[in-house]
Amino acid sequence: MADDQPKDRTAGDWMHAIAKAAVSAVPVVGSPAAEMFGFLVVAPASKRRDEWLRTVWERLVAIESRIPGLIEALPSNEEFVSAALHATQMAMRSHQNEKLTALRNAVVNVAAGIAPSADRQLMFLAWVDAFTPMHIAFLGTFAPSCTDEQRATIRGRMSGDREFTDSVVNDLNTRGLLIDHRLWVVNTPSIKESTACGSRVVSVAPGFRGAARAV
Description:
Distance between the termini: 19 Å
Helix content: 55-70%
Strand content: under 5%
Number of helices: 10
Number of strands: 0
Oligomer: single chain
Number of domains: 2
Order of helices and strands: HHHHHHHHHH
């Protein structure tokens, strides 16, 4: 088993390097702006990336005790490499713990072999990238393990902002994640079930576990 955390550069690193070089090449802007870009964006982004990789690595190490040889096999697992690269780029663009947790759980599920097909997995990652924490929390209210108290708390928070809530419900309906398509479904306590795809999102949502579980 490898002892160190992975240190390979991601596509996101090269994008930042190209952006910094482009700023430096503009005569009017000059190198001070490039240094400022590095201070404001590149360094914090690198810190985010390193923290993200550390937490993913810790999860992989933790589950290898149950799946011997897991880490050694991952470099040749193309689905895992693709999912990890996509999720890493998405994680670097977010500071929200709910989204980072969902992305991390998704990557670990791919590593453990309990994720959906590659096409569905990439589609799922794109959804998590586009969703706000409230999208994920609302889907979590359809999880079998979600208590009535949790459901009431989350839906109660949403009911106070009709415009935002309608937008969230429309987003989820457009992606086929809700069974009940009514905009005001948040005020319908009896609705406790999402579609199969919705359950997949719920399965990696922080605080909830649905049809499939995160390792």
